[in-house]
Design goal:
The chain is of the alpha/beta class. The protein has 13 helices and 15 strands. The protein has helices at 4-21, 37-45, 71-77, 102-116, 128-132, 151-158, 163-174, 184-200, 256-276, 297-309, 340-353, 370-375, 410-426; strands spanning 26-27, 32-33, 64-70, 90-91, 95-101, 122-125, 207-212, 221-226, 231-241, 282-289, 312-318, 331-334, 358-361, 380-381, 383-384. Bound molecules: ligand BES and zinc ion.
Length: 428
């Protein structure tokens, strides 16, 4: 509560002066000048200017974060995480906002994972203001025109989707001891992907690669941009999280399904794009998000920066867990915190372009990076490997390996085909 008062006093000042002072926006986490969000947004907007930076020492990270968490989870946890001793910074029947020390964030994540088998999710925010925004509904996403008329191009490109390049990427990423967002190897993995994508894009002047540096933690996100040939201001985002966890920086966490598989599918769409010489009319951004497992922190910062800049995101496809076939249907669309029109469009793409089956289910909370985009008013979807309760039981453990999934990527291939069709039918 001690920290709340200066914040509340500062609010009118902030509102009145925000546009002029954007670059030196005060950071209420630490009471000192923030790594400016605006600068990061510019790093992303100017193609190719930001090379991977030397890692910021994890010890230098800000001490305070705010979480938004379901009130029912606070009640269920009770004394297990000293919630009763804490005063929420905001609360209603659905959602609660609490101030936490950054060190406590990991502990809460671990407790939630133990208690609910898988952590039922909470959002971490670097400011109270951002946490409080969770109380308001996202603005209505602008409807994209969903038409399906690129049959020839889609069919040709679908034939290029290759299982072995997907297994290759899953093997490479799951060979890191962990991709935990505050670990040395977790910092190295996105830097490696930045280099890999840079090489892949050689010879395509319309493609650039950048890293997105986050203000509060050392793991970077990676963003590859294919500039649209006709309507470059319209942007389509395809990606997933590159981090993983089995509870801390020291535990082995291969994260093969969660979520090397999603990055491998993202990479396969990009590989097919380049192999086929495809040039989209609209701009495509392929993203590998940092720190999803820490509360959607990487995507939250990026999506908020895009909204602040007024980037016209037409659609976001989140690829998170694609290689474990746990349910009868092949592709399972999450219906909450996603856009129903875009989900229907994706279902049609499956019907028209593939022999696969699909179904829908609810996560029950903002379970992955699509929620960050939805929250900022953009149409987002998550095609998932199974229904809830039937997903890969090895995630968030040392057993989340490619071997545990039979050493193959047959399931992930289906998601790559869907994502290729989505890209071609939307970016036209
Ligand atoms: N890949 C999972 C999300 C997931 C798991 C969705 C199982 C559906 C079924 C994701 O990486 C994850 O673990 N998310 C967290 C929530 C996040 C806000 C920290 C989770 O579900 O515990
Ligand atoms: Zn995941």
């Amino acid at each position: 509560m001690r920290r709340l008062l200066p914040f509340l006093l500062a609010v009118p000042f902030l509102v009145l002066t925000a546009p002029a002072r954007a670059a030196t926006l005060p950071d209420f986490d630490r009471g000192i000048t923030l790594h400016p969000l605006v600068q990061q947004a510019m790093d992303v907007a100017v193609p190719g200017v930001s090379a991977p930076t030397p890692a910021i020492s994890p010890a230098a990270a800000p001490e305070t974060v705010w979480i938004s968490i379901l009130t029912q989870d606070v009640t269920a946890l009770g004394e297990e995480f000293n919630f009763p001793e804490r005063k929420p910074a905001g609360q209603n029947g659905v959602l609660s906002v609490y101030e936490l020390r950054a060190a406590e964030l990991d502990r809460l994540g671990d407790i939630m994972q133990r208690k609910f088998r898988r952590s039922p999710g909470f959002f971490a925010h670097s400011s109270l203001r951002s946490a409080q925004q969770d109380f308001t509904l996202p603005p209505l996403a602008a409807a994209a025109a969903y038409t399906i008329d690129q049959g020839e191009k889609v069919s040709t490109m679908l034939q290029l989707v290759d299982e072995s390049s997907i297994t290759g990427m899953i093997s490479t990423l799951s060979a890191y001891k962990t991709r935990y967002y505050r670990s040395v190897t977790g910092i190295a993995a996105p830097k490696w992907l930045y280099g890999y994508w840079t090489q892949l894009a050689a010879g395509r002047p319309d493609i650039s690669v950048a890293t997105f540096r986050h203000s509060a933690f050392p793991q970077e996100s990676v963003i590859l941009t294919v500039t649209g040939a006709v309507e470059p201001e319209k942007v389509i985002v395809i990606g997933g999280h590159i981090d993983c966890t089995s509870g801390g920086a020291d535990n082995p966490a291969p994260g093969a399904d969660d979520n090397a598989s999603g990055i491998a599918v993202t990479n396969e769409v990009l590989r097919v794009l380049i192999a086929s010489g495809y040039r989209p009319a609209q701009t495509l951004k392929f993203m590998a998000f940092a720190a999803e497992e820490a509360g959607l922190r990487g995507s939250a910062e990026i999506a908020a920066a895009f909204k602040k800049q007024g980037v016209a995101v037409q659609g976001m496809l989140n690829l998170d867990m694609a290689n474990f076939k746990g349910s009868a249907q092949d592709i399972n669309f999450v219906t909450d915190n996603t856009n129903s029109d875009q989900n229907a469009f994706l279902g049609k793409l499956v019907d028209i372009y593939t022999p696969y089956t699909w179904a829908t289910f609810k996560c029950g909370y903002g379970c992955s990076d699509h929620a960050s985009w939805t929250k900022n008013g953009y149409p987002a979807s998550l095609p998932f490997e199974s229904k809830m309760e039937e997903y890969n039981p090895a995630i968030h453990t040392a057993n989340d390996t490619l071997e545990q999934m039979g050493g193959r990527a047959t399931h992930a291939v289906k998601f790559a085909k869907l994502a290729v069709a989505y890209m071609v039918e939307l970016a036209k």
